[in-house]
Structure formats: C-alpha cells, structure tokens
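2,3-bisphosphoglycerate-dependent phosphoglycerate mutase (Propioniciclava sinopodophylli), 244 aa
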Amino acid sequence: MGTLMLLRHGETTFNAARVFTGLLDAPLAPTGEAQVEVAADLLRAEGLVPDLVWQSTMLRASRTTELLLGHLGIDLEVRSTWRLVERAYGCLTNVSKHDARLRFGEEAFFTWRRTLHGRPPAASPEQVAGWVDPAPVADRGPLDAGVGESLVDVVERITSWWVDDLEPALAGGATVFVVAHGNTLRALAALVAGLTDEQVERLNIPAGHPLVMSYADGRLGAARYLDTDAAHVAAAIVAAEGGT
C-alpha cells in the first residue's frame, strides 16, 4: 500500500493580502513559515516519512519543502516539475479578490475561480507591464502568466505526470509527499478521485495543512487532514474569501 501526502505551500505575502498570485511568485509570509513547522509536527506525530518528494518549481513551494524537510530532519532528493505550478490566472493576476469581484461581477468571479471549465480572460499588455514578480522567475514550462487557464487545463497538464511518475511510485508502495498549490492539488484530486463538477466547486485546500490518503489496488482511499478541526476552519476561511 502506498501513501500520498498533499501539502499546499504555506501562506505567502500575496495570500495574506488576498491578492491573486497565479504564475507570479511570492515568498512565504512569517505566518506561512510557522504553518510549515506545525505541518512537520503533525507528520512526525503520524510517523510519516517520505520515500519521495515532488514539488512545484515555484519559490513558495520549494521553500515550503525546504523548511518541511529541515524540521523533519530528512535529507533526500526532491523532484520538481513545472506541471505542478499554480494555475495561470490571466486578467485576475495581481488583482485583489475584493477588486476582482467589483470589476468583473460575482458570476464571472465564481465561474473563473471555482468551476472546472471557467477560464479567466487573458491579461492586457498594460496589465502585464505593471506586474512586478516578487521572486526570481521559476521554470513555468510553456505556460504564460498572462494567459488564463481553466481547472481542466490544469488537469490536462498534470495527467502525464500522474501517469508516468506519481501513480507508479504509489503502486510500488512508496510514501510520496507532493508540495504544490491550491489549484494544482484541486486538479489532482479531480483527476484521481473522479470528483463531480459540484464537488470540485466546493473543494478548498487550505495552506499548510497535510492531507493524507492511502493507495492500493489502483485506487486512492479517503482523504483525511492530520488536524481535521483546524483544517476545516482554515478551509472555511478560504471559501469565504472566494475559494482556493
């Protein structure tokens, strides 16, 4: 039996300001670094030790991984892939959630943010010119930060990674940690758990809360947070802000 642990990176400076980050990269806020330490304590108490770690190439994910393994006292090779980077938000990038609701309306905000097929329009050249990436540019593969992605687009780009890399490791009985972003983890859940559109719309994954599931006979077991009460409170806060 394999074990899969999903961890959304700790809170960033953009998260704290409730600003859409997308393919811009932002450092962890002090609160985010503290979240990673708590996550490490929960994993240690559970006795979970990774055989393999996969991470997004973005700074907020790689820093989360670095802190997590440091707190756990684990030194092992970490694999990175651009396929796990955050969803490209197009015109929502670098816009606060409050302003996005006012500018585009509640219906568009919900459709672009929460549904499987909603895709934010591309950012204007003027909007792109005003972006200042707060961190060194990570490997984003062929993705363009100014071109919006739907969640289905994200599912498509992670599918080959799931088939070629993650599922075989789980099938071999490995314990795999995946450190990524709210939307890539939502897309992975939609892909491997066969979630309905409504289930995907309701799914919010809070920062810094380990989510664990078993893998056996080609199927993932039920997901569970290691601190259920705290995770559900955090997920409710995310939902109130407009979702992951």
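The CA atoms of residues 167 and 218 lie 8 Å apart. The first helix runs from residue 13 to 16. ok done for today
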